[in-house]
Design brief:
The complex is a heterotrimer of chains A (about 120), B (about 525) and C (about 150). With about 120 residues, chain A is mainly alpha-helical. Chain A has a two-stranded antiparallel sheet. Chain A is flat and about 80 Å long. Chain B has a domain of about 210 residues. Helix content of chain B is about 75%, strand content about 0%. Chain B contains 19 helices and two strands. Chain B has a two-stranded antiparallel sheet with strand order 1-2. Chain B starts with a helix and ends with a helix. Chain C is mainly α and about 150 residues long. In chain C, α2 packs across α3 and α4 packs antiparallel against α5. Classes of the chains: A mainly alpha (about 120), B mainly alpha (about 525), C mainly alpha (about 150). Chains in contact: A-B, B-C. At the B-C interface, α1 of B face α4 of C.
Amino acid sequence: MFEQLLKTFDTGNGYWNPLVWGFAFLIIFLIIYILRGRGNPSYKRGTEQTKVFLSGNPEYENKELLHVKASNLYWGWVESTKWVINTLKKMHTGRANDYILWFTFMIAIFMLLLGVI
Amino acid sequence: MNILDILLQQSPALIVATPLLGAFLTPLIGKLGYNVRNIFIIIILAVTAFLVFLLASDVFSGNIHTYVFGGTTSTVLSNTVIRILFEVDGLSIFMAIITVILSLAAVIYSWAFMREETGQDKYYTLLLLMTTGMFGMVLTGDLFNFFVFLEITSIASCALIAFWTHKAKAVEAAFNYMVISTIGALFVLLSIAFLYGKYDALNIAKLASRITPVSFSFIDKLSLILLLAALTMKAGIAPMHMWLPDAYGRAPASISIILVGATQASLYGVFRICFTLYGNVIQIPEVSLGWIMVILGLITMLIGVFMAMIQIDFKKLIAYGALAELGYMFLGVGTGLTILSNPQLSLASNSFALQAMKGGIFHIINDALDVGLLFLVAGAVYYATKESSLNNLGGIARNMKYTTVFFLIGLLAVSGIPPMNGFASKLLIYESVYQLNPILAIIAILASIMLLAIMVKVFYSAFLGPKIDRFQDIREAPKSMLIAMGILASLIIFFGLFPDLIVNTLVEPAVKAITHPTSYILWLTGGV
Amino acid sequence: MMSKIVKTIAGISFPFITIYGLYVIAHGHLTPGGGFQGGAIVASGLILLLVAYGTDWIIEKIKESHLSILESLGALGFIGVAFLGLIFGGMFFTNFIAGTSMLFGGIPTSTAANINTGGTLPLMNFAVGLKVIAGLFAIVLVMAYAISKEEGE
């Protein structure tokens, strides 16, 4: 039973064993931890060195304003793929009539592909 | 004959009948009090779960179970199949296991989540009816019976989507869902009528044995198209998916999770029709459904991730993520179908067809768990903050530690990061789809990366960030909600850590059942 | 609330409609119709009273919650008969009464309609009839009540 649990998962062309992965993860974590421990311990508390760096802008007094809102995240990606997203948005009208239109359209496509008409 | 044997013999009927009995008893038990009613419902579903696992243990050892309603024996006596008949094979029981896990989680979650609502008796009645419908859909061996259970599921879920009637958008989503499901179901009925007119049978195995390359004609093609179009629409495959994000997003979270199961039951219908009902004619070149499924899967994936990128509403975003996940199942199974239906390809390529099918089927249960967990987390966040827009959320990880951990688990699982369960099935899909065409695998991986980016966006904007005054005093979700999320999260980790065990015990019989339609057909018709 | 003529006529025709509906339910296994159709007829008789005498008058006599209990009992009766089939006949929905000396246990010997046949079918028709009467009437009652409240405001 226990052996069955630990068996390597064969995916046809490769294999995958979560336990080996976990072991590797642990080792990598240890390495990172050691590297982190070798960091510079001689920084000075309470000076400019420990302040938040916001591209040189001053830090807001009201911390709430620091939070980037969800609609502003990935702004660049959304802006550059605007043509796709706007087309898709136009598809999603939210009306039942259009849903049925798409359904009819797909039936027509299936009919063409399977050679009924 | 001891009691377990009797229960096993009766289990296909009892799995459907127990939640049905519970549904009708709920309004009466509801008079006895809040806790009594909820404990009763949990017991009903626990009994159902016991029966499902009892039946599963037998089906996975290679048997196919039949059950004749109103008959005098459990087997079919003569060659004429006129009664309502349940036929349970590996894929059916696989779907039933998903249904029972999801509905148990939903009911446990509802204990606290629905505490302040009115009309709970009706809520639980409909919830159990919906579960009944889903069990019926996956266990039945009769095409008309499938339609009846499809309708039961649609009507119950339609009422449940509109449960928060004070929200106009919930009512609108329910109306759209009602229009869609009624029209879809009527097309299913129409094509069943076509098949009945031509072949004089309603039983799936009987019909499948009569649909042969010789008899294959215009009517068969037409019914195949109508069944396929209607069921893919009910399963939410693009570009007929538009009802799905609305319905998932506007329903209460505990209902969204069962709706995931309901769409997957329709997906089961698609697979059953393509592989079993038309199993004898799968190699006719005109029935080249494999590539259609693959392309629909890709479109679904891409539309899902692109639309999820710009969603602001927490649950709607997860709903689009769920849509992308549906694409993976279609991609995996479609790849399998493409290769299996091509007589020219050698046996060697059959092995990767099987791997693709395994990936696709395995992804069904993974998707149910991952997306279900994310919906429950979204519901918990809504419960605590009364806020569903991601723009107004922030920093709630400070107050809701467990929920944050559960979201993190769901995030990793849904975007296919090891060691969660999503990785194992996606790895299977990538590797086998790559053999068919490398571009497919590339698009699939790309969609997965985008899914990760989307979920990270949610994690950042809702859970991380500075303290927000409004959410200073919010509290962690109640215990019952944490338990429901915990069940799903622990299953996700378990499936992720021991994928080989799960694939061998759960997925392999399902794949075997679906790729060997002859055993399904011959079990009933006895080689005629 | 309608005029006296409507009230009187509704009062006179209500028993006839009810009897006819019950007849359709009871003969469900012999003639066209059955639990659902007969139940709808009885419910329409009740709705006639509702229209003639006004919602407030009916609401005093019948509570919606009582109707929903009746509806549950109808559904329970249906599935209960199915479970009895499992217990006595060995399979879910088995017609365990047919061929016995119990009520409805007779086996038809000629083409002439004999009400003492059908086994569990008449019982299921009764259950469905009860459910449909209660359910349909409850729906209309609630809707009429909501409309009357809206107009009152």
